[in-house]
Known about the structure:
The complex is a heterodimer.
Chain A: H1 2-13, H2 15-20, E1 26-28, E2 33-36, E3 45-52, H3 58-67, E4 76-77, E5 84-89, E6 95-102, E7 107-112, H4 130-143, E8 151-166, E9 176-192, E10 195-196, E11 205-210, E12 216-222, E13 225-234, H5 237-245, E14 249-251, H6 259-262, E15 267-277, E16 288-289, E17 291-301, E18 304-312, E19 315-320
Parallel strand pairs in A: 2-15
Antiparallel strand pairs in A: 1-14, 3-13, 3-16, 4-5, 5-6, 6-7, 7-12, 8-9, 9-10, 9-11, 11-12, 13-19, 15-17, 17-18
Chain B: E1 14-17, H1 25-33, E2 45-49, H2 59-68, H3 73-87, E3 96-103, E4 123-131
Parallel strand pairs in B: 1-2
Antiparallel strand pairs in B: 2-3, 3-4
Helix pairs in contact in B: 2-3
Amino acid sequence: MIRLALCLFVCASFPSLADSLRLEGEAFKPSAKVVWAATNTIPPSLAVYRVVPRQFSNESISNFLKIVSFKPATMKVSPDKQTMSWQGNSENGTLVRSLDIMPSSGCINYFNTAVALDDPKHPVTGVPSYEEVETLAAHYLQLLGGDTNQISWKPQSRTELNSTSYNRKPSNGGQIISQSVLKRGIMLCRQIDGVRFNSPCGRGGIFIGFGSHAAISDLQLNWRNLQALHRFKTLSKESIIRQIKDGKSVIPDPENTDTSALSLAKKFRIISLVPRYWGEVGGAAQDDVYPFAEINIAADVGTNTMNFTINCQILLTDAVAP
Amino acid sequence: MEFGDSRGSRGLKWMTIQACNILRANNITSMANNSKLPIGDNLHLLLGAASLSYAVPNLGKYYGSNLVNNITVEQSWFNGGIHAFNDAHGGVTNTVIFRAMGQQNCFGDSFSANQPPDLNTAFTIHDQPVYTP
């Protein structure tokens, strides 16, 4: 009776959390043996965070509006009152500048195509190097209330807009007359306790790009305000293998995985396991931010090896860590 | 094969093909050297990937919403790619480069304001990596 009461207490303590540990993708149930071949270790415990509404400070917003040359008076508010927007059109009506701020989800989206125009009469100059872009990214993240200690600097996704112009169409014998970089940017993933979010930056992090004279050409900030909720022990490797065998893992990108070939596999080897935090896309609502395991698997299919990724629970949700 | 035709405003103006290596640099150079570029004098822009690409879930949504918000066609394609790949989790292991090509005066085209290709302007290729691992 005491044991039953204890069990009910534990279940009643964290029912919503266990329910909210959602994995997105196509269910994976292995048809062959699963063995552990990973050399990295699983952290003994990981924390779950609650998303609390973020309020960008008035000073942050005011400074940023000055930088991107929008006036507070031209702000429009969405019908649900969740988004503040500013827009700027060119003379012909094309949208060239846009800023959306969603304070509740810590989300900002901005672009300005005018600072990276491929116009021979006004060539783009002063596009910052990647090293300068990193420094600027840290500066703007701080200005908007983000914590640069939570940036995972490597690996980082980089982008630059390259232009190559020919005097005539190449098929008509055209020769290259100019090559230039119109803008340059980086995508930086957020990490908490050394654990990255589950995408380059769209689910937690910052993408920022710069055009002529280091003016901001693009900004995508996803920086939810997080409050530590509980720290839980993690599953053992035996429990993770059991979860996989029981079909409780998912293939997150089935569109890019040959799932039909997996049914022919003779063995599945777990090559690596990396904890990640789950973030919803952009300004989408999210109650809790929780970790999961991103597992790289090698499937032995005949004489070939096929690598693919699955996601799996990592928390032992009825075991709170000290 | 040549995209675009001479029916002025009623003709095909922009063509986007989301497929791996559809505008791969070596192939485009080879087509150009053999006068086989699939762009005649009427297509404004041809857009696609110059590398491997992936079926990322939100690409169509972002590209479409940018286009209908009257952002330039080129910027919409690049924005769509960057934002969709920024959201993607797992599975993307290669650099993905998006490309737009056409006469320079068409790179400012949007749905509401655009102009026919001016053959006196430079023929231009824009490449933008939308994801690097």
